[in-house]
Amino acid sequence: IMSSIVKFIEVIAESDKGFENAARNAVLEASKSVKRIKSIWIDNFSAEVAGDKITAYRVNAKISFVLEGHK
Fold first, then answer.
1. 12, 23, 43, 44 - which has most CB atoms within 10 Å?
2. pLDDT value at position 10?
3. Strand, coil or helix: 47
């Protein structure tokens, strides 16, 4: 029996719409070069502020994926 081998990458993603959108962008961008993504874990939230408005929402995320050739 072959067990799954899961690896993760750490990314920083941004959105001007909100944290949920930033997380979505992290998965979307990672999926361009990484296949078989299984989960995302948000490690940190931050935002950029100009004046009294949030201009950019950022997430530091760990994205896990199954290595090719494994279940």
1. 23
2. 97
3. strand
Contacts of 18 (CB under 8 A, 6+ apart): 57
Task: Provide the total of helices (H) and of strands (E) in the chain, helices listed first.
Answer: 1, 3
Query: What pTM value is reported for the model?
Result: 0.85
Percent of the residues in the chain that have a pLDDT greater than 70, as a whole number: 94
- Reported as a single tens digit per residue, the pLDDT across 43-66 is 999 999 999 999 999 999 999 999
The backbone region for 7, taken as left when phi is positive above 0, alpha when psi lies in -120 to 50, beta otherwise, is beta
The structure tokens listed for 56 are 């950019």
C-alpha of 7 from chain center = 13
